[in-house]
Amino acid sequence: MDNSNSNPNANNQNKTSKDQQLEQFTVDNDGKNLTTNQGLNVSEDEHSLKVGERGPTLMEDFHFREKMTHFDHERIPERIVHARGFGAHGYFQVYESMKDYTKAKFLQDPSVVTPVFVRFSTVAGSRGSADTVRDVRGFATKFYTEEGNYDLVGNNMPVFFIQDAMKFPDFIHAVKPEPHNEIPQAQSAHDTFWDFVVHNTESAHMIMWAMSDRSLPRSFRMMEGFGVHTFRFVNEEGKAHFVKFHWKPVLGTHSLVWDETQKLAGKDPDFNRRDLWDAIESGNYPEYEFGVQMIPEEAEFDFNFDILDPTKVWPEEIIPVKIIGKMTLNRNTDNFFAETEQIAFHPGHVVPGIDFTNDPLLQGRLFSYTDTQLSRLGGPNFHEIPINRSVAPVHNNQRDGMHRMTINKGPVSYHKNGIAGNTPKPVPPEKGGYEHYTEKVEGRKVQARSDSFKDHFSQAAMFWNSMSDVEKMHIVSAFQFELGKVQRKEIRQQVVDLFAHVDSDLATRISEGIGTIPPQTSGSASSESSPALSMMNTVKLPLTRKVAVLAGNGFTDELPFVLSQLQQAGIIAEVVSPKLGTIKGKTSGELEVQHSLLGADSVLFDAVLVAGGALSVSELLTEPKTLDFIKEAYQHFKPIGAIAEGANLLPSANGEGIVIAQENEELKPFGQAFMEAIAAHRHWTRAI
């Protein structure tokens, strides 16, 4: 009998030389002082060093640079964040000249076509994670302009979890798989993430977005994009406007439902990737209108929020979005690695007329992104990789380094010089040289945050107030799911207590499902609302929606007519049957089957149409999955159409989004009604 476990020295006796070697490097941080990697005690770990509380971040902040540099180089070669992405080529055109606001040339002439490359991504997961996880989505655009590359590196949500880049490594560490067991993948439903939230209350507003349907996009083609930060437009006269950037999808902003996303992660983990690829291949090019919100410099302090705070939105009802152009994605990549994986974005890649502000999160990103590429892409010459090359000529005195592609002629690699006539030479601003905006900066060097950044709850409440009843229900369910995975009850209670500061009704409803004490007070941090925040108010079009047509041999002659209607409206109808091959109509005609019921699933489609014909219905019923297919679509609030006998397979003949054509009924009105149901996306009254 082995009694080694009862011997307190047994573990030490059984250690290998490798175990003992590793033990020398094991560190327990519990109860210890915070230090730099040089052993220096750190007095401040939340605020980067700035010129004044609202001023720019200083390069001399060695602790910030050490912390961020270490974070940027933690993974090789996968991106630490936004690792799972998918990209496409396209072009951008401005609708009208923006000369009054910016001297950026690509925003001047509507006839100029600017090439772009866009990379969509998740944030938390690895390259091997699924597309449909609950997460923020990256929306990064590289404009290849005649003045050089301009990168708009944003997300599908207009705010972020933190206010200062000093906290970015902490936030990502908290949301990533927990380090002791590398679990869970691509999920925020775990203790360390929510522990971060309750101890960093500035994240409250972003949590509302993350728990909403915005974190479950139906498609990259149906997802808004935001620059997140406040930038500057500067015109030829040197006048500046604060600006925020928006991408508005022409197809509207639509989401999946939570149960659907979980099933899709197994049925098709590449769901969003495949959707984008297929749309472009079929000529259904995704389109996004480009909008700007602008504030004159003199109006900087006219609002009840700080316009430089990245955890705040500028409500569109107060500061309207001016639509100024459109981007179209019209070409897929030839090689995923060479293009999508090697593209290098950086918020500091700007052109004349676009400048920065003292947003402390943006200031940190201006350091971090180039630093990251040094590990990912093997050195300082990542700009010479084809996908990153500027279409504008490149001439400078930078030389050598890993993977250098340019062969520079001549002996000169310095400025100023006489041998080469002091070339390449700087370009004065009046001839197109980049000139930083001459903002006046004054103040003491401090590690602090402006008092104007300290309101963490009013816009979180505004977001809640702006939601429809269905959207609120989804937010509560998301909180309950996430917190239901949190093992430490005290963290669950702390989350409820925290969001009681946002809205007591929200906190009470969260509490009901997670075994915590509901808040004892009532009220909301704000009575304001912004209708633009609700997805219920988005564009609703049937274009490019996918319909599963359930049919078997003996389908009625009406089906081809309805399919023709759908096709003319830009709807994609694909036949699903018990077996692949072709099926024959009741009297004439054949249809090709694109999917067998074994390989298809309702979550892969936006709507379901059940063909008529007694023989067709009987054949569909030979596959038990048929009824589950229809029932699941019904439970996910999708539109369902049925022709004649096909209605016998529906779980309900009544309800919003259920459209039935009776035998011998005229089909044109049926088709129109079904297409209107498809355009609505979901029919939420089934949930109320």
UniProtKB/TrEMBL annotation:
It is an enzyme of class 1 (oxidoreductase). Residues 1-14 have a biased composition (Low complexity). One of its GO terms (molecular function) is metal ion binding. Its EC number is 1.11.1.6. Heme binds at residues 79, 119, 168, 365, 369, 376. GO terms for biological process: hydrogen peroxide catabolic process; response to oxidative stress. Transmembrane segments: none annotated. One of its GO terms (cellular component) is cytosol. There is a cross-link at residues 346-369 (3'-histidyl-3-tyrosine (His-Tyr)). The active site is at residues 82, 155. The keyword Oxidoreductase applies. Pfam families: Catalase (PF00199), Catalase-rel (PF06628), Catalase_C (PF18011). Residues 1-49 are annotated as: Disordered. Residues 22-41 have a biased composition (Polar residues). It catalyses: 2 H2O2 = O2 + 2 H2O. Residues 35-423 form the Catalase core domain. Its cofactor is heme. SUPFAM superfamilies: Class I glutamine amidotransferase-like, Heme-dependent catalase-like. Keywords: Heme, Hydrogen peroxide, Iron, Metal-binding, Oxidoreductase, Peroxidase. Decomposes hydrogen peroxide into water and oxygen; serves to protect cells from the toxic effects of hydrogen peroxide. PANTHER family: CATALASE, CATALASE-B. Belongs to the catalase family. HPII subfamily. This is Catalase.
